[in-house]
Amino acid sequence: MARDADSLNVQSATTESPLARRALIGLTLVFLLLVLVLPLIAVFTEALRKGVPAFFEALGDAETFSAIRLTLIVAGIAVPLNLVFGIAASWAIAKFEFKGKAFLTTLIDLPFSVSPVISGLVFVLLFGSHSVLGPILKSYNIQILFAVPGLVLATVFVTFPFVARELIPLMQEQGTADEEAALSLGASGWQTFLYVTLPNIKWGLLYGVLLCNARAMGEFGAVSVVSGHIRGMTNTMPLQVEILYNEYNFVAAFAVATLLALLALVTLVLKTLLELRFSDAISSGRRH
Questions:
Q1: Sequence-ordered list of residues with C-beta below 8 angstroms from that of 105, at least 6 positions apart, any chain
Q2: What is the CATH number of the domain that holds 163?
Q3: Average of pLDDT values for 274-280?
Q4: For the chain, what is the mean pLDDT?
Q5: Does residue 285 lie within any of the structural domains?
Q6: Does residue 271 share a domain with residue 194?
Q7: Which of 126, 168, 235, 238 sits a CA distance of 20 to 30 A from 186?
Q8: Count of domains in the chain?
Q9: CA 238 – CA 235 distance, rounded (Å)
Q10: What 3-state DSSP class applies to 140?
Q11: Neighbours of 126 (CB within 10 A)
Q12: Residues 214, 263: contact at Cβ < 8 Å?
């Protein structure tokens, strides 16, 4: 009886009343409506304010098309680089013990704590005309700043934690038993990675790549510093939105913004699906 009374007291202390639950749900819905839904509706409404032909005409502008293409190029380079780095760093941290492991983990988290603008300024100090490396690169006719290499470096810096941060806890939870079993059966290191490690982390890897790509295509601060805002050459989609908006070309600005909004929505849907598949895979692995 005493045990039942204790359980009832715990339940009453941790279970909200129906009124409180409705209030919390209502508050959450109102917040999402004001912060997420209404801004998205405003973006699409403003983009289509002058009709569908004006919308596609804005997207077909030469400078806008160049910004879209450059965004895809930068993301297409930065994401695979972060994919390789994320797998290598996660494998090293989760599967091996070595000196400096905690320091490496801290370095991976560094872009989360540094402002993207500061990240861009770091590359300006490294590769600018008054830096140590700047004159050397210029003598070989290599341009980093105000060119695609600078955009890629800035994007890689701000996005490289995403893949590693998804894989490290997953690999640590899985341990090394599967790899040790494969090696004991005569598999080589690459065979163990390709046929044992990689299949075990595929859903977490896809999840990290998805987040990395979304951030790469939507990055503004670091890219803005190193781009030089050269129209038709170094402006990515977020920078093009800023320029068009400052020029009061609202339809064109919001037309480009809709592409970024659609990317966010697609990312959200895929993220949800991957989370469900990822949780199912973990639950299945635990049962087995």
A1: 93, 168
A2: 1.10.3720.10
A3: 69
A4: 84
A5: no
A6: yes
A7: 168
A8: 2
A9: 8
A10: coil
A11: 16
A12: yes
Rounded to two decimals, the pTM is 0.82
Provide the sign of the torsion angle of the four alpha carbons 111, 115, 120, 122, taken in this order. Answer: negative
Task: For tokens 């090696």, name the residue.
Answer: 183
Q: Closest by alpha carbon to 247, among 261, 223, 231?
A: 231
> 3-class SS at 39?
helix
Q: Do 226 and 156 share a structural domain? A: yes
Q: How far apart are CA 30 and CA 273, in angstroms?
A: 25
Let me know if residue 30 belongs to a domain.
yes
Domain co-membership, 273 together with 197: yes
Which token pair is 256?
């480009």
pLDDT value at position 10?
A: 46
- Amino acid identity of residue 150, one-letter, is G
Residue 283 counted as domain residue: no
Q: Which tens digit of pLDDT belongs to each residue from 98-136?
A: 888 888 888 888 888 888 899 899 999 988 888 888 888
Cα within 13 Å of Cα(60), Cβ side: 6
